Description:
Elements: E1 7-11, H1 17-27, E2 33-36, H2 44-49, E3 58-61, E4 64-67, H3 69-79, H4 90-116, H5 119-140, H6 155-161
Parallel strand pairs: 1-2
Antiparallel strand pairs: 1-3, 3-4
Helix pairs in contact: 1-3, 1-6, 4-5, 4-6
Amino acid sequence: xxxxxxxxxxxxxxxxxxxxxxxxxxxxxxxxxxxxxxxxxxxxxxxxxxxxxxxxxxxxxxxxxxxxxxxxxxxxxxxxxxxxxxxxxxxxxxxxxxxxxxxxxxxxxxxxxxxxxxxxxxxxxxxxxxxxxxxxxxxxxxxxxxxxxxxxxxxxxxxxxxxx
Length: 164
């Protein structure tokens, strides 16, 4: 049964992570209200809704609050059944989650550290970020599919789309 509760998304224009959530909501045809946050001057609303990480994105669905983009993507997929994002088979779901986590830990963390460091540390993190992208590209090109997860856009396309 499709949920009719009000949906809101807290995001920040310069953060790539709320885009994941927006793409998933749009693919599923879910109407939502976007609330722009200033991460340099965090609102009381953001601090109340995400007191652990104090960052965006945060999805509000009725009286439920869901933080973290990957967690939100899975919530959206389980709540609105039309246009499934995750593969239907357990192995496909596991691999989609694995590569999304790999990109988060290996690419994003190294890319961020490369921006925040100098000298040899910067070079090392930059090299590791590029190597992780090459590994992702190598692995995902094995399938000869139109999209990462098959013949239609899905979870992994959304998770990695902010890289491209």
